[in-house]
Write a structure and sequence with these properties.
This protein is an alpha/beta fold. The chain has a domain of 175 residues: 3-Layer(aba) Sandwich (Rossmann fold). It has 24 helices and 16 strands. Strand 14 and strand 15 form a beta hairpin. Helix 16 runs antiparallel to helix 17 and helix 23 runs antiparallel to helix 24. The longest helix is centred in the C-terminal third of the chain and has 59 residues. The complex is composed of six subunits: RnfA, RnfB, RnfC, RnfD, RnfE and RnfG. It is an enzyme of class 7 (translocase). GO terms for molecular function: 4 iron, 4 sulfur cluster binding; electron transfer activity; metal ion binding.
């Protein structure tokens, strides 16, 4: 089987699928030398002129720069710096329209040249073999060199790979119509181009170097042969002219016969490709320390009076180049950056020249196709026949219009090289390439957003994990610190003993403060602090263990404190209930007395105004009414006391069990009626606090005032009735019902609890003639006073005992 080199030497090459033969139109510029232009009035330098991100700014507005001075610096592998094309002053850094099909605006540096064109200091290298491989790669990177054939891929990344390279292919095909920049560059600077090829050979060490050039450039072919005649490793490959033979995959197919699979880079097949203009820039950067600040641009088209190739400084506005080449715009003004097949229309003449600009096309009206509307596809299939990437342009266009991005990727949209062959042959005038470019941009934007979302998710998960680790580390640190403190306190040293003493003293102070607060709360009738403000049993027990105290003694003190708190809460609740019930009883008693008084007054007035009745009946009725009124007053007082006792019993159902039962058996010689009153008052007195006594005394004062008022009204009525009785002619004994009522009243007085002296006085003073009843009331009052005195004494003894017990516990804990 014939080898690749043998086929090349014989001039036999492979063919790629599809392709077209559009009019070349290269004669407009291929017979004129490259022209050097004067400095423009202003240069616009975009920060990003390649595939990847722009560099980081290192200059500011107002800075003076020299020719070749870097304006940005590398901040990532896919970034490249830009340099000042001439000396001058930076007048602005702002967004401006760049060379892009959509007319995007991006950050740009505006430089006003000073006309001196002064260089920065450069280090010229006569022999690149004296430099290491890494030094050469750094020189290429610092020079900001990117692929100048149109892709703009950073060159230092491409040449920094060192796998087994079989073929280094130099692309000099320049297949697109009108463009002759590479053709003229080869003719005038073939020696420099060969130096660049030698540098690439030194870096990549390929087996063979193939220079692919179309057969429509005879002068350039001869110049390359003369420059490489002593360089046996280089093979000049003159291929047939066919568009787009200059495509990367297409040129590889023509020269080597290998198909590059979809999604695979040529480097994986042992092939590296570089453009002929890139080789010239590499030689300038490595040997002359000249960054990429200029390039050859073909300015062509029939609308120009002097079309030619020019050395254009990067950042030169398109308008300036057109003026230098005699642009004569017509009515249908149309400017294209790039060739007629792969170029794009310019939105403004202020767009600057960048690293990948190789052509500026200004056609006249006859060269511009007539405006024709897009019609429906007739399914002729010509687009598929000419597609060099063997795609299905018709289905791609349908999916692009439907924004079916998944289907576009299945159809290998990104294998399209935007050559425009499909649109060139379409009879329906469908701009297929424009559909593909828009779809590619939208897909790339979605991929960037998905990548950002994925990175944000990763950052969130990392932050969450970091916070969890920090939390666990803090907990472990605190645990170890606590263990170290406990271990230090348990050591038999003076410092440990002093630490224990300090902890014990602190606990004692805390307990003393709590006891003082509890006593003050009990005195004021307020509930003590809740348990949430005091340390739990487990915490106190742990503290006691750490300080060397007895946990059981501490538990007893806690139980005692809890019982004291419970009693204080009960007493406060009882005091509140008694206060409310007392107020209700006072209002009820006053209301009953007031109603009885009003009723008696009305009845007296009715009886005094009645005529024709017997005087004996009047006297009997008056006495009956007086007795009945006394009886009702006593009954009301008895009911109020009964309600009070029932409320007290409901408020503290188990109080009798907590109190000492010996109080009921202290004095056996007390009379029965006094002992009953004493028992009742002793039980209430043992459970009432000072606040309850205060409420009781205020209640008694109100009841006494109501009773006194009732007594005065009763005396006034009695005097009026006495006067009526003296005027009566005949006297009679009290009737049987009246006597019975009096006896019932005496029984009620005896059975009424003697806890309230005011009630007893009210019963005793209702009649001045009831001396036995007065004696009985006095005895009851004496018994009540004696019971109260005993209860108070016993309460003082208990309080004293509790205080001594607390002091003893504190001493034991210390």
């Amino acid at each position: 089987m014939e080898s690749v080199i043998e086929r090349i030497e014989r001039g036999h090459f492979w063919k790629f699928h599809g392709g077209i033969h559009p009019p070349e139109q290269k004669f407009l510029t291929n017979d004129k030398p490259i022209r050097h232009l004067p400095l423009p009035k202003q240069l616009i330098i975009p920060l990003r002129q390649h595939i990847g991100n722009g560099g980081e700014l290192i200059v500011a507005v107002g800075d003076k720069v020299l020719k070749g001075q870097p304006l940005t610096q590398n901040s990532a592998p896919m970034t490249l710096p830009v340099h000042a094309p001439t000396s001058g002053t930076i007048t602005a850094i702002k967004d401006s329209v760049i060379a892009h099909p959509s007319g995007l605006s991006e950050p740009c540096i505006f430089i006003t040249p000073d006309g001196e064109d002064r260089w920065r200091e450069r280090q010229v290298c006569d022999d690149f073999h004296s430099l290491s491989r890494q030094e050469i790669v750094k020189k290429i990177a610092r020079a900001g060199i990117a692929g100048m054939g149109g892709a703009g891929f950073p060159t230092h990344i491409k040449v920094n790979n060192k796998p087994e390279i079989n073929y280094l292919i130099i692309n000099a095909a320049e297949c697109e119509p009108y463009i002759t920049a590479d053709d003229l560059l080869i003719r005038e600077h073939s020696e420099a181009i060969v130096d660049g090829i030698k540098i690439l050979d030194h870096l990549l060490l390929p087996a063979f170097i193939l220079i692919g050039i179309e057969d429509n450039k005879p002068e350039a072919i001869e110049a390359l042969r003369q420059a490489t005649k002593s360089y046996d490793k280089v093979k000049i490959c003159v291929i047939p002219t066919k568009y787009p033979a200059g495509g990367e995959k297409q040129l590889i197919k023509v020269l080597t016969g290998q198909e590059v699979p979809s999604g695979i880079l040529p480097i994986s097949l042992g092939i590296v490709m570089q453009n002929i203009a890139t080789c010239f820039a590499i030689a300038e950067a490595v040997l002359n320390d000249t960054p990429l600040i200029r390039r050859v641009v073909t300015v062509s088209g029939r609308a120009l009076s002097k079309p030619r190739n020019v050395w254009a400084l990067l950042g030169t506005p398109v308008e300036y180049l057109l003026e230098q080449c005699g642009y004569q715009p017509g009515k249908r003004r149309h400017l294209i950056m790039g060739g007629p097949m792969m170029g794009f229309s310019l939105p403004s003449t202020q767009v600057p020249i960048v690293k990948i600009t190789n052509c500026l096309l200004a056609p006249e009206e006859s060269e511009i196709p007539a405006d024709s509307k897009e019609v429906e596809c007739i399914r002729c299939g010509q687009c598929a026949e000419v597609c060099p990437s063997q795609l299905l342009p018709q289905e791609l266009q349908w999916s692009a219009k439907a924004k079916d991005y998944d289907q576009l990727q299945k159809l290998n949209l990104f294998d399209c090289i935007d050559c425009g062959a499909c649109a060139y042959v379409c009879p329906s005038q469908i701009p297929l390439v424009q559909y593909y470019r828009v779809a590619k941009a939208e897909i790339r934007q979605l991929q960037v957003q998905e990548l950002k979302a994925e990175k944000a998710k990763d950052r969130f998960e990392a932050r969450k994990a970091r916070l969890e680790r920090e939390k666990k580390a803090r907990e472990e640190k605190h645990r170890k610190a606590a263990e170290a403190r406990r271990a230090a306190m348990n050591q038999p040293t003076q410092e440990a003993q002093s630490a224990k003493s300090a902890v014990a003293a602190a606990l004692a102070r805390v307990k003393a403060k709590k006891a003082q607060a509890a006593d003050s709360d009990n005195t004021q009738g307020k509930p003590p602090e809740t348990e949430t403000n005091s340390p739990s049993t487990n915490e106190v027990s742990a503290n006691a263990t750490n300080t060397g105290q007895d946990p059981r003694a501490d538990q007893k003190s806690q139980v005692a404190a809890a019982i004291a708190r419970a009693k204080a809460k009960k007493q406060a609740a009882m005091a509140k209930a008694e206060s409310e019930s007392g107020q209700k009883q006072e209002h009820a008693a006053e209301e009953e007395v007031r109603q009885e008084t009003q009723t008696d007054t009305m009845q007296d007035s009715d009886s005094s105004n009645a005529e024709g009745h017997n005087q004996d009946n009047v006297q009997d009725n008056a006495e009956d009414k007086a007795l009945d009124k006394k009886q009702k007053i006593a009954a009301a007082i008895a009911r109020a006391k009964a309600k009070k006792l029932s409320a007290q019993k409901a408020a503290e159902p188990g109080q009798g069990e907590l109190e000492d039962n010996s109080s009921s058996n202290q004095d056996k010689d007390t009379p029965d009626e006094a002992r009953a009153a004493e028992d009742d008052n002793t039980e209430s007195q043992m459970t009432d606090t000072d606040t309850a006594d205060t409420a009781e005394s205020s209640k008694q004062e109100k009841i006494q005032a109501a009773v006194a008022k009732a007594k005065e009204k009763a005396r006034a009525k009695a005097k009026a009735k006495a006067q009526a009785k003296s005027e009566a002619e005949a006297t009679s004994e009290p009737s049987a019902p009246a006597a019975k009522t009096l006896q019932d009243q005496e029984v009620d007085i005896e059975d009424t609890p003697a806890s309230d002296e005011s009630n007893t006085d009210a019963s005793a003073d209702t009649s001045d003639e009831a001396k036995p009843e007065d004696q009985k009331a006095q005895r009851i009052a004496a018994a009540v006073a004696k019971a109260k005195a005993k209860a108070k004494a016993k309460a003082k003894e208990k309080a004293k005992a509790r205080a001594e017990a607390k002091e003893q516990q504190q001493l034991e804990s210390e």
